[in-house]
Design goal:
This protein is mainly alpha-helical and 150 residues long. It contains 6 helices and 3 strands; from the N terminus they run ααβααββαα. A hairpin with a 2-residue loop joins strand 2 and strand 3. Helix 1 crosses helix 5.
Amino acid sequence: MGIVAALVRSTFLVDAVYAASARKYGITSQQGQLLCVLMAGPRGMTELGAMLRLAKSSLTGLVDRTERNGLVGRESDPDDLRAVRVALTPHGSELVEEFYAETCRRIEDLPAALDPEDRDVLADLLGRVVLANEVPEVFLASEEGTGKKV
């Protein structure tokens, strides 16, 4: 399999895992992505739009739906009173911790057929591709096999 097919098919594989984890917690994949981004702390709408690569109207709808579910809330931006930031609620924080750990476990199982050295090589190569393309930190790094954030 060539690099293009391998990368494209791997995105489908990871998307399927993300969707399965989201279904387990009664949220959509996009809501799961939003919650994972917010684990690092509140973010402004412009920053969220850039990180999640969503148009303003799509992001507003996503935040509205997630807010109605009691998982996020809007708060004033202390640096710009005209702007709002989106933050996890206590319920959202609890849910995302479980969702994040579940998703990490599922994704860590994907390369189970590889020996530890090949897993390290794969992680190194993919990490270099991600960094070279300046992919936003939409999912925190975790220690191998623990789901613990690092």
